[in-house]
Amino acid sequence: MTPSARPPASLWLALTPLALLVGLLALNVAIFGDAGIEGPNQFALILAGAAAATIGLTRGVSWHQLQEGMLSVVHVAITPVLMLLLIGALSSAWTVSGIVPTLIYYGLQLADPAWFYAATAVVCAIISSAVGSSWTTAATIGVAMMATGEGLGLDPAITAGAVISGGYFGDKLSPLSDTTNLAAGVCNVDLFSHVRYMAFTTLPSFAIALLIFLFLGWQHSNASEISQSAQMLTALQNSIFLSGWLLLVPALIVTLIMLRLPALPVMLIATLLGALCAALFQTELIYQIGGSTDWKGLYKGLIQSIVSSTEIQTGHAASTDLLSRGGMAGMLNTIWLILSAVVFGGLMEASGLLGRITDALKNLARSRTSLVATTAGSCGVLNLTTAEQYLTLLIGGRMYKDLYDQHNLSPRNLSRTLEDCGTVTSVLVPWNTCGAYHAVVLNIATLSYLPYCFFNLISPLMSILYMRFNIKIEEKA
């Protein structure tokens, strides 16, 4: 029986795998805590996918169709997987080379705790707007901001929220962003027209987020933070070579990214430059990691520091924690999670269950305001089930194009809503490629930073409010 001829599943049946997944993940949090990422959550996704496949088989979907559904979405995970491996390598290489410690050292001297959260969001917004990528922003300036914030004694969850808020400002608004181009393309909207229209909801959302970050920063008394910062500065000076010349490497990498070179080659170049700096400036440390003082020890130390966990002893516990990296191997749990998640999404779509859920949501769109609210809800469901923001934008754009036409709304309203509600919320789902990526890069659980991603939480509400009060709403030509 063809998919079009097959009668649709009941909504409750379609929701069963998703309900099973949420229940298993909640159980894993209660029993395993943060260790859930080390296998239990991946197995939960596999079990939920198996439930979707079983329902599909009982409804006449062949195993071949289910398998094709899995394979059709696995390819979207290849780039994130390679990015994660290179980010793990880059992070370790930049740490043992002294680049990250130097960034932390100067950051601790210049940063003011009262302004730090807001400043982090602004800096990350500027970088992400220039490079068009929240992922690259988090892996470079975001890592440095996390370390600096910890050195100042600030809450890492709030710092991560500021990094992500700033990162997704540019990821959403920059004409260089993949998601910005995709949302405009799938809705057949001119790119720069799409960007200008998004600014109406994006700028107020970010302004509100900045005010909240300022308020949170002003709550901190900095007496203990200054003491910890001074101890960390001393520990860094005594344990590793620091130099402003090392900052030429991140400056070069940002330049390459702004020149629109592909991200994967740039990350590899960044890793190799970090390894070169480690060999030149941290030779004794590399010998120590490699276990000998000859060329073999140098080579072994460099490779080990890139591919496996590395800990630089500073004599100061907080500083040692900051300079501990997992390398490429430290990314494997996250890669496992992403692969399990996209398989779940592929099985949900191939079995027809995802389409049944989204059809039910579409039936709720009876007014313009409910249409935007339903689009937001659909984006949330798609981010939960497909685990990939690109699929969310593609499917969401196809689902709602005719409905926006029926309500006499310009397609720019749909492209803006997809970004307001789809792009920025992907990072809030622990098993979504974006949520898993940022959790491992920033070294903090998705559910820990989620309450502080103010820009990401406000954006969908802003989109709904603009439609409710008819603010900057363009009619169909």
UniProtKB/TrEMBL annotation:
Annotated membrane topology: Multi-pass membrane protein
A single GO cellular-component term on record: plasma membrane
Transmembrane stretches, start-end: 12-31, 43-61, 73-94, 114-145, 197-218, 239-259, 265-287, 335-354
Keyword Ribosomal protein: no
Residues in Na+/H+ antiporter NhaC-like C-terminal domain copies: 168-470
Subcellular location: Cell membrane
KW Transmembrane (keyword) present: yes
Keywords associated with the record: Antiport, Cell membrane, Membrane, Transmembrane, Transmembrane helix, Transport
GO molecular function: antiporter activity
Family note: Belongs to the NhaC Na(+)/H(+) (TC 2.A.35) antiporter family.
This protein's name: Na+/H+ antiporter NhaC
Organism: Spongiibacter pelagi
Gene name of this polypeptide: nhaC
